[in-house]
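Re: weekly structure request thread

Next one in the queue (800 aa):
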Amino acid sequence: MEKVENLLNYVKVPSRADKVYKDECVYTFDTPESKEGLFVDMANFIGVSKDMLDLHYQKSGSPVYLHMKRTKIPVAKDANLEPEPKVTRLAIGMEGGFDPSSKVKYTYEDRNSVFLMPDRTNIELPCPSLPQKIQDAIVGILAAETASFKAEVEATEWNGEQRIVSKYAHDLVQLDNGVKIPPSGWQCEKCDLTNNLWLNLTDGSILCGRKFFDGSGGNGHAVDYYSQKGYPLAVKLGTITPDGKADVYSYPEDDMVEDPFLVKHLSHFGINVSTLEKTEKSMAELEVTLNQRFGEWSTIQESGAKLQPLYGPGYTGLQNLGNSCYMNSVLQVFFSIPDFQKKYFANGISSAMDNFRNSTIDPSGDFNAQTSKIAFGLLSGRYSEPPEEEVEDQDEAQPGIRPLMYKNLIGKGHPEFSTKRQQDAQEFLLHMINLIERHSRGSKNPSDCFKFKTEDRLECSQSNRVRYTERDEYCLPLTVPMDLLTNREEVEEYKKKELEAKSRNEKLEMEPVRPHFTMMSLLQSFTQPEIIHQFYSSAINAKTTAYKTTRFATFPDYLAIQLRKFALTDDWRPYKLDISVAVPDVLDISFLRGSGLKPGEQELPSDVQVPEFVYDATIMQSLMEMGFPVEGCKRSIYFTENKGIEPAAMWAMEHMGDADFDKPFVIPGTEKKNADVFVPNEEAIAMIEAMGFSRAQACVALKSTDNNTERAADWIFSHPEEVSNADSSVPAPNEVTYRDGAGKYELFAFISHMGTSTSCGHYVCHVKKDGRWVIFNDNKVALSEHPPIELGYLYFFKRI
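Done, posted below.
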């Protein structure tokens, strides 16, 4: 033990503040259950796989490791197993939620040892002769919460949807009418329904809920009662759990809400929540069920067929971390593209090793290193080997990799992607492109394969003079005008029959008819001129209207197209367009090529005198309180001419999906010809300067975070070297290069969304590999039999 005694300076007992990476290697996805186990650095608590041990030792100099090896032992089918834990809420991987591992099929045997580098001495445990400090460190490491668990706690829990606290909950009036509610045997007071019942928290009345779109549900008596009485809150009976959680609906707020005083409100009617059990599906669970019944879910996931699982390099799935299917789908597309493979996985592991060598001792916070880890996990085939014997559970046969470390890293500081809520795959696509660009300075940026330059042509309606401006884009958004329907008669006939069935309170016994479009018609629609109001024309020095057309100035190597399937109802509620689109295997967009200034065209004068516009402070404050970004508020107020909060809010709701909605607002007609020059958000600069930083430093941070104030502040503290080198008021733009070529493309991937909005549902990815379509449904990877191309949300084409 003398040798061990000489190494005690390299051993530390972990404190509560230390991050202990004992569940997964920080370089690869090996775990203690992997063939060679996991080696935990007893000085820095970094977990590494055996093939990364030499690299980590060279970087850290740490010679003492706890070698953790766990062996999984199948449990006999007739073994006396404990019952599965009861699910009390809609959550995944969290206490009380759905736990995919809750079925006890295995027991585990742990064999730990102390491993010494560089001579690879192995000391089996237990070993009473080990120095006490090492024994204490071992106990501390084994007992410590993992770094991933701590990161999970920091993230927002997912409970199906984020709900606000109702403003009616605190001072809710409850009538002393002597009503007491029994623990069971409920029935609607207006009809004979015994499910989908809602208890009004003001007077204790029990009434049925709304009818669902498939004809099931209630008769709407609870809604009718609210219109008569105006009592605001109701709780769905059967969803109340012993911890005081339930579905609560606010009629005046027209949404599901939180009632922090629910236990008290229920006790008013004699209900003791500790004796209740959840017996009905929550509204979030019902939405999933109804969508599955509607057909979209089963079609997109190809759940009607027994699909052939695929294994090997490029066929590794990603586990769904609560609600990360949007991330999983985008990553599968990225790492199907050679540009990303070369950057993060060239020649097998070589580029990944370069990124690991260039990272710190703890690479868990290094973007390039962790992206290389994802590439290794997906492309090496190491985590996609067929089971030695046939298993019934596909989750067990294809466990995939668990990208928790990566999700926490790329979401850090972001108001949406740092949470466990469902997010929009298109927004995440752009977020990833932004991160990759930021971390590719001085090296090749693989996301340039998506980048293209657009040409905006503005023509003054009075002078007929024109201005051409250019800007960078990475994704082409296409709206879906309903006047481009190809099956209008069938859709109208179905709607007619549906209304007739509803009038008879019957369920329509026929398959729904989806509105159908063609991709080419949507692209043709994209070419149509857009009318720009309040355009400031430098030719007449006054406001007028202009006509805007957009074309491609360059064609990218890979073209990403988003179908804008999400819209707003008349009362501003978001909904999804349930449509299908005919997408060709080969797409020719050559007709979208811009031409620049044409012979005979006269340019608008460039010496624009920017007109003064004063934004109404009251309207601005009201819009910001609604959650709209500052630049979006400016746009809303400008285009509604300071006429009031209602028209401004309406404009904001209609245009919040615009690509430039939260970008720095420039009055139409005063744009600079070179739109690539970065324009910092002045309000954000003022806020960062108030923190003690210079304008130059604020501009550098804002440019690196796409003008996001919160992320910019975090970026400053995490990039001290770049901040200290900021020496100009506005950072110079990076040299911009564009790949250009023919406009003929072939479809190679698409991402589909299931659900009623981007804040809920599920994403699935299909990628064409070796001439065949492959479905990536989180960790499940299989040969696709019927790829639902017509139901896609994001489409990816590669140049032919």
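The chain has a mean pLDDT of 85. Residues 488-503 form the longest helix (16 residues).
Next request, please.
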